[in-house]
Amino acid sequence: MLNETTVTKLYEMKMKVMAGAFKEQLQNPAFNAMPFEERFGLIVDSEWGTRKSNKLSRLIKTAGYEFTGACIEDIDYRADRKLDRAQITALATCNYIIEHHNIVILGATGNGKTYLSNAFGVAANRNFYQVKYIRLPDLLAELSIAKQEHTYQKVVKQYKHVPLLILDEWLLFQLKEGEARDILDIVNYRHKRVSTIFCSQFEPQHWHQKIGETTVADAVCDRIVHDSYTILIEGESMRKFKGIKQKRK
User: Coil, strand, or helix at residue 106?
Assistant: First the structure.
């Protein structure tokens, strides 16, 4: 009767995995020879492991990745891409997030910038950091709507505070009037507080003309360029390469 009451209480406290592990021990005589501390430790480990796994799944799901299955282990290190495996492995430890640095990923369209950024994002999720992935055009559109609906401060807050923000298609298009100041608002707040990954087809020396407003452009670039690790992806388009491989099969 006491055991049934204990199981019921565990379910009421939403510890169903712990309840299941407890019931398993009650039904399996093999556990009787184990000390109480070890048996209890196994029960707690079951609940803890499941909660950690569920939390990781939630973090990946809410990040909004283009490639939810992206991971550091599956990065293509073909020689023509000229990727530094040691650099990527070091960045995957997420020390740059602890130190509030950024990553700039450069490369032509189709070269795998998005996949690599998402792989870094998933690596951060594995360390239980919250991540937000968004294309810069989508972010600017969201902020524009927020201004019209008088919710700008509420919307922009999530992009200022998230531990790792991934901005894809960074400065792919010329910024419109006012957009440069929105970007400065976010970049300035995040500087030295949290980390950002920028994915761009253009090297930093070309960012000024994309931003437009000289003073604002100087401020944005200064807060990014001097505080970032840079990864340049070379070689053929991954879309083309994978398309060729599929045709050969």
Answer: strand
- Name the residue among 76, 68, 93, 74 with its Cα closest to residue 234: 76
- Cα-Cα-Cα-Cα dihedral sign, residues 87, 89, 93, 94: positive
What one-letter code names the amino acid at 131? V
> Rounded to an integer, what distance in angstroms lies between the CA atom of residue 107 and that of residue 210?
17
Report the percentage of the chain scoring pLDDT > 90: 69
Can you tell me the distance from the alpha carbon of 79 to that of 26, in angstroms, rounded to the nearest whole number? 57
Its CATH architecture, for the domain 66-248, is 3-Layer(aba) Sandwich (3.40)
Element (H, E) at 91: helix 85-91
Each residue of 27-66: pLDDT tens digit?
Answer: 888 888 888 888 888 888 888 888 888 999 999 999 999 9
What is the pTM for the complete model shown? Answer: 0.85
Domain with CATH 3.40.50.300 in the chain: 66-248
Distances (CA, A) of 34 to 7, 37, 81, 100, 207: 20, 8, 54, 46, 64
Sheet containing strand 164-168, strands side by side: 131-135, 164-168, 195-200, 102-107, 228-233
Q: What is the pLDDT of residue 246?
A: 44
For 2-12, the pLDDT digits (tens) are 788 887 887 88
Spatial separation of the C-alpha atoms in residues 204 and 219, rounded to whole Å: 13
Residues 86/84/203/226 CA torsion (nearest 10 deg): 20
Residue of 43 and 112 predicted with greater confidence:
112
Give one DSSP letter per residue of 33-75, joined into a string: GS-HHHHHHHHHHHHHHHHHHHHHHHHHHHHT-S-TT--GGG-
